[in-house]
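Sample intake sheet
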Amino acid sequence: MAIDAEILQTIEQMPEPLRQELLHYAKYLLENYSKPISQESLLQKKRRSGILKGTFVLPLPDDFDEPLEAFKEYME
C-alpha cells in the first residue's frame, strides 16, 4: 500500500492543470496497456527476415553518385 499513499501524496501537491494531464495519461495507459495480448496479434507483429529480397538491383549503375538533373541549378 505504500505506493498508493505515495501516488496520492504526489497528486495532492500538483496544480490542477497537471492533475488533468495526469488523468489523461492514466486513462491512456489503461486503454492501451491493460488489454491482454492475443497470440494472433503477436504473430502478426513479428518481423520476417528476407522480406525485401530481390527488391534492390545490384550492382548499382556507374552514375549512381552523379548529381541529378533536377538539382543542377542548385549545384552551380
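Comment: The chain has a mean pLDDT of 84. The helical segments are 2-13, 16-33, 39-45, 72-75.
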